[in-house]
């Protein structure tokens, strides 16, 4: 028990260190790229407010924004304020950046969670279908369709939804949707690729579970194949792909940056692209930090689940 406790502490400490290090590296890169940008925030601010871009105006705005200080001083000042939860105010609309980030994150989270729920349901359906029809034409057809669906990027599905479903068929709308329909079209764009990737893997895991000695023992006890499949193979196969599934959700979060623009969803993707377009450093730095932390947390969650599964398997083997 002491070794397990010590190992758990080391594991937690390592993961916390990874998150902190990731945040520092990402924010440093963010500040460095802003410094290398050919158009600085002061120039963009003057142009946006239709003010002449003169040396005097630039100096005045840079002083007000703190851009006249060395980049290291700017970063340390921003980091000090960020640790207190103060990310400043937007240079575009003067709104509190943290409030904008939280609002945008709520939209992105709903898209990703809805997509994850639909993907999980379809993965189970595809996996069971591939297993039950593994030696039939239908099983080979489903496998071929999965192979083809993996190659279709979400942004292509988003553009086709606009072109075919909304414009040509008139069955939907991009703007003005409320409730579930505001997020469902965007979430559906992630479903085919993820489900097509994990469905066959889930089927392979089911096949492996059905070939284990415990499944043969259940058959000897006269349990039906259906009962063995639903009560043993499917739950065990699901557990085996959960860590990778969490990592795929993190990739969906990164892909949401483009999808949100297509469907006019004011999430993190809309916020980061708006910040880059209008050269709004407070928004850019805060959004990049939030995306990096969220991606790190997804990966940590996957590692935690994998660790729990590994320990559970070891304990079962010991008791066996």
What can you see in these coordinates?
The structure is a single chain. With 320 residues, this protein is an all-alpha fold. Helix content is 79%, strand content 0%. It is built from 13 helices and no strands. It has helices at 2-36, 41-48, 55-65, 71-83, 97-132, 137-150, 154-168, 184-188, 191-210, 213-220, 225-262, 268-277, 281-319. The longest helix is centred in the last third of the chain and has 39 residues, at 281-319. The protein starts with a helix and ends with a helix.
- What general form does the structure show? elongated
Portion in strands: under 5%
- How many helix segments? 13
Distance between the termini: 19 Å
| Rg, nearest Å | 25 Å
Could you name the ranges where pLDDT drops below 50 across 5 or more consecutive residues? 313-320
* Main pleated-sheet profile: none
User: Could you tell me the mean pLDDT?
Assistant: 82
- Helix residue percentage: over 70%
Summarize the model shown.
With 320 residues, the chain is mainly alpha-helical. The protein is built from 13 helices and no strands.
Give structural attributes.
elongated; disordered C terminus
Any chance you could write out the topology, listing elements then pairs?
Layout lengths: L1 H35 L4 H8 L6 H11 L5 H13 L13 H36 L4 H14 L3 H15 L15 H5 L2 H20 L2 H8 L4 H38 L5 H10 L3 H39 L1
Helix pairs in contact: 1-13, 2-3, 5-6, 5-9, 5-11, 5-12, 5-13, 6-9, 7-11, 9-11, 11-12, 11-13, 12-13
């Amino acid at each position: 028990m002491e070794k397990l406790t010590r190992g758990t502490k080391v594991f937690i400490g390592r993961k916390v260190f990874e998150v902190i290090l990731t945040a520092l590296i990402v924010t440093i890169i963010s500040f460095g790229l802003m410094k290398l940008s050919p158009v600085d925030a002061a120039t963009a601010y003057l142009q946006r407010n239709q003010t002449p871009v003169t040396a005097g105006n630039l100096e005045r705005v840079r002083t007000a924004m703190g851009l006249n200080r060395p980049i290291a001083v700017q970063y340390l000042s921003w980091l000090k304020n960020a640790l207190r939860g103060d990310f400043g105010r937007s240079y575009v609309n003067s709104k509190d950046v943290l409030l904008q980030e939280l609002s945008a994150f709520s939209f992105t989270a709903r898209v990703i969670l809805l997509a994850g729920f639909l993907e999980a349901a379809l993965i189970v359906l595809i996996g069971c279908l591939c297993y039950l029809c593994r030696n039939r034409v239908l099983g080979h057809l489903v496998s071929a369709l999965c192979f083809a669906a993996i190659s279709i990027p979400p942004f292509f599905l988003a553009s086709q939804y606009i072109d075919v479903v909304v414009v040509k068929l008139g069955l939907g709308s991009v703007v003005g949707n409320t409730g579930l329909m505001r997020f469902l079209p965007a979430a559906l764009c992630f479903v085919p690729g993820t489900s097509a990737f994990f469905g066959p893997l889930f089927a392979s895991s089911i096949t492996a579970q059905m070939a284990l000695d415990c499944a043969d023992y259940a058959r000897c006890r006269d349990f039906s194949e259906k009962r063995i499949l639903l009560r043993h193979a499917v739950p065990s196969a699901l557990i085996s792909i959960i860590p990778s599934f969490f990592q795929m959700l993190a990739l969906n979060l990164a892909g949401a940056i483009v999808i949100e623009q297509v469907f006019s969803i004011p999430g993190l993707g809309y916020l980061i692209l708006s910040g880059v377009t209008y050269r709004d450093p407070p928004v850019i730095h805060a959004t990049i930090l939030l995306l990096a932390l969220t991606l790190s947390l997804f990966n940590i969650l996957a590692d935690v689940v994998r660790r729990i599964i590994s320990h559970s398997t070891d304990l079962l083997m010991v008791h066996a």
